[in-house]
Amino acid sequence: MTLSMYQASVPVFLRALSNLSHVLKKGAEHAATKKVADEVILQTRLIPDMLPLARQVQIATDMAKNATARLAGVDPLKFEDNETTFAQLHDRIERAVEYIKSFKPEQIDGSETRKIVLPTRSGEQHFEGDAYLLHFVLPNVFFHCTTAYAILRVSGAEIGKNDFIGKA
Q1: Taking phi first (over 0 means left), then psi (-120 to 50 degrees means alpha), and beta for anything else, what does residue 46 get?
Q2: How far is CA 79 from the centre of its chain?
Q3: Architecture of the domain delimited by 5-165
Q4: Nearest 5°: CA angle at 4, between 164 and 56?
Q5: How far apart are CA 77 and CA 39, in angstroms?
Q6: Predicted confidence pLDDT, tens digits, the chain (168 residues)
Q7: Cβ neighbours for 155, distance < 8 A, ≥ 6 positions apart
C-alpha cells in the first residue's frame, strides 16, 4: 500500500492537535486547582529565549492548518494571535481542526511535487510538497507540541508520555 500525501498529513495533524488540546485541558485543570491565573501559565517559557506556551500553541496550529491549505494549493486561513486564556487556545485548536477537516484527500493527494513558497522573516523558502511536509512542517508541528507539553509539565501539570502520544 502506498502512503498518500493526505494520509501523511491530515490524520497526523488532527491527532497532534487533539493531543495538544488534551494536555492543555490538563494544564488548565492544574492551573485552576493551584489558583494560578491562565495568563501566568500561558506566558511561561522553558528558558528566557524560547517562546511562551500560548505562542507554542499558536505556531503548532498555524503549521498544521497552513500546511494543509498549501498542500491543497490554496491560501491558508489566517488566525489572529491574540489568545490569553486556555479557553481561547482550545477554541483556536478547534477552529484549526475544523479547517483541516474541510479538505478532501483529492485536494492534497498528488501534491508531492507542488511548488510551495513560504514567506519567512529571512526571505522566501522554496519547497516541493513532499519535502515541505516531511522535512519542514511535521518537525515543526511536533517541536511546538512537544514544547507546549514540556512547559505544562514543568509548570506542574500531571501529564505524561501517554497524554502527549494519545490513544492509537
Answers
A1: alpha
A2: 13
A3: Up-down Bundle (1.20)
A4: 30
A5: 26
A6: 588 999 999 999 999 999 999 999 999 999 999 999 999 999 999 999 999 999 999 999 999 999 999 999 999 999 999 999 999 999 999 999 999 999 999 999 999 999 999 988 899 999 999 999 999 999 999 999 999 999 999 999 999 999 999 876
A7: 27, 30, 31, 36, 41, 44
